[in-house]
Specification:
It contains seven helices and six strands. The chain is of the alpha/beta class. It has a single domain, classed as Collagenase (Catalytic Domain). A six-stranded mixed beta sheet has the order 1-3-2-4-6-5, with helices on both faces. The chain is globular. The chain binds zinc ion. Zinc ion binds next to helix 5.
């Protein structure tokens, strides 16, 4: 099984891969309960997801967090040093207050059939999304690529913010998504449960205060 440490080495290698996209920061959308809670997420699109699909996915993810009173700012980072040089925020070490999401087309051979990604909760920072799994779910024709990708990112961010807790029976933190879940995704009704929202808001607050929000019990390969 691929270990978290090998993933992290690959993550660092991403910074010098010759695949580029322009840094794009996008404004927060209005709506949701009033709150000062904010999360910044750096996104590395190694799977070359179409820009329109990625932006729509980020809008989905932002909506899900906005329902909890948390505003998400997405930083779409380039993947080359030369491009990132103009945007030093993307090549500086990711601070523990942020989450970094890598979308990749490469999947571990032993990845569980239901897994769309992994959150390396021991780092408190790094999330990987396996885009071929997004495409597999989209082939069912219930939810589109953006909706599934946005919910997959939100799910893994949930792992990062909730710590090493089990999947839940209901809502976006379910471990395997059924056709009914995909219908809820398409309708925008696949959200965090209220008790999860409380914990996530607390984690977001800690991050805003500059505290590392990772939990002490650390799994080897993160939370799927
Ligand atoms: Zn999971």
């Amino acid at each position: 099984m691929t270990t978290a440490s090998s993933y992290l080495r690959f993550w660092k290698c991403l910074m010098v891969m010759p695949i580029g996209t322009a840094l794009l920061t996008r404004p927060l959308l209005a709506g949701g309960p009033p709150s000062n809670l904010k999360l910044t997420v750096q996104v590395y699109n190694s799977a070359s997801v179409a820009p329109g699909t990625l932006i729509a996915a980020e809008d989905e993810g932002a909506r899900i967090f906005r329902e909890m009173g948390i505003a998400v700012r997405w930083l779409n980072c380039p993947l080359t040093i030369s491009e990132a040089a103009a945007n030093p925020i993307c090549i500086a070490p990711v601070p523990p207050s942020r989450i970094a999401v890598r979308i990749t087309s490469e999947m571990p051979a032993n990845l569980a059939e239901s897994s769309l990604g992994v959150a390396f909760t021991e780092t408190g920072i790094y999330v990987t999304i396996y885009y071929p799994r997004v495409e597999e779910y989209a082939k069912e024709g219930i939810a589109n690529h953006s909706q599934i990708l946005g919910h997959a990112i939100a799910h893994e961010m949930g792992h990062m913010l909730l710590g090493p807790v089990p999947h839940s029976r209901f809502g976006i933190m379910r471990g395997a998504w059924t056709a009914e879940d995909l219908r809820n995704i398409a309708m925008g009704a696949f959200l965090f449960k209220p008790y999860q929202s409380v914990l996530i808001r607390q984690a977001a607050m800690r991050r805003m205060q500059g505290e590392k929000a990772s939990a002490p019990a650390l799994p080897l390969v993160g939370q799927y």
